[in-house]
Amino acid sequence: LIAEATGNAAWDWDIPAGRLWWSDGMERQFGHRPDPEGRLPTVWRENVHPEDEKRVDELTDRLLRGEIDRLQDRYRFRRADGTWTHVENHAFAIRDDEGRTVRILGSVSDISHRLEMEERLRQSQKLEAVGQLTGGVAHDFNNLLTIIMGNTEMLQDSLDEGDPLRRFADMSAVAADRGAELTNRLLAFSRKQSLQPLVIDINSVIVGIEDMLSRTLGEDVELGIELADGLWPAEIDLAQLESALLNLAINSRDAMPDGGRLRFETANASLDHVDLSTEPELISGQYVVISVSDTGHGIPEDQIAHVFEPFFTTKTVEMGTGLGLSMVYGFVKQTGGYVRIWSEPGEGTTVKLYFPRYTGDHAAHDVEKQSERVQGGQETLLVVEDDTLILHQLTAQLTGLGYQVVTASAGGPALDILRKRSDIDLLFTDIVLPGGMNGRQIVDKAQKIAPGLKVLYTSGYSENTIAHQGRLDAEVELLGKPYRRTELAAKLRRVLDS
């Protein structure tokens, strides 16, 4: 009865009699029917993994000889259906008055599920640590790229198309754009990008990028799309969703060099605790699911756990940086969702993105992207930036756009300027600043001095002061670093004219 209550396979070795009894747990857990007579060797000994036999025998011998009183060991064990599992064996010895071992009692439990959960937890913790590192690197690198991109654009403007030096300026601009794309992907993985979520219909998003997907995949890949009727809305950053789907499509294309089939599907899913028994991070509830399946070469089992890590790739060096899936992973997690991946070598790969169902009052809508031209102005701007190089470069850009510029390197001097001048039209401030005040605190004090003052933030990544879980507060306008002059000009005009 005790053996039944534990749920394990219990055993009792009567050494003088030479019998080893097994409980019904041996058959219930592993499918083996033990010998009711308890004859040795038992079915257990016959199914210990050959590579673990020596260690298991040595520990058992030590327990018999009295060198140890208790035994705890893990090894591989074969089920009746031929599959292998990991088990944990606990045992203790009973000895007579002369110290001879007369009986050993123990239990064997299947720990494969527990080991899988522990591995998932370790992987999650590792990705979290890597995310913290990459977020910090991207933040500092974005500050440098802001200077490089701004100065490069000014060089391009000052050089004629036929000037031999113009080619080098153009090459620098291309390199800076690639650097910005790299940092954006790092920030996506580390969940520190600034999201601007909208209530959208995912079906309409997929339909909207179908032509782009077809051009990206080429003629050798057959694209199939199956969209569920009555799909629930979801609150997602539209640009990041499109980028994630494109990344998945490119990964699938590269896995099918000789052609194949790529399928996008959408569905509603209600997950309960039973569905989530092997997914510790996924919360029960209702989700909108996007499934992306290909017939490519697949991913080896020993690599599948690493595919979301930055710079890990199964592709050759010239085919990618290893940031595509890590960007997808970070974006979905930051949105409150989850990513699942299945793959079998030679058969293909399926990636499923789970986004929480939106249950608010806003109706789903499509978003039209607007093109914006460079337009300056004559307003007076107060710029707060502690990096001298960025401040000089930004001042040159703003004055080139026609603005009057006043600068400060910290909150205290900026507030002093506002007290003395009433002609400041907009406060353009970095978020992380020295002097005891961050950008949000400066803005709070500034708007008490000058009610109605327009505000534009800038930062290398989203901060908790203006965003929560990467989602910008409703009233916040942010220009993420690095930015091009066209983006700077357009954002300033949008805030000033609002």
Describe the fold and architecture.
The structure is a single chain. The strands form five sheets. Strands 2-1-5-4-3 form a five-stranded antiparallel sheet, sandwiched between helices. It is 38% helix and 24% strand. The relative contact order is 0.09. The longest helix has 47 residues, at 112-158. Helix 11 (388-400) links the parallel strand 13 (380-384) and strand 14. It starts with a helix and ends with a helix. It is built from 14 helices and 19 strands. It has 498 residues and is an alpha/beta fold.
Give the helix proportion (percent range).
25-40%
User: Judging from the principal axes of the Cα atoms, what is the shape?
Assistant: elongated
| Uncertain spans | 317-322, 367-372
Helix-and-strand structural type: alpha/beta
Q: Alpha-carbon distance between the termini?
A: 76 Å
Spatial order of the strands forming the largest sheet: 2-1-5-4-3
By DSSP, the count of extended strands is 19
Sheet with the most strands, sense and barrel status: 5 strands, antiparallel
Summed over residues and divided by their number, the pLDDT gives a mean of: 82
Strand content: 15-25%
The total of helices stands at: 14
Rounded to an integer, what's the Rg over CA atoms?
31 Å
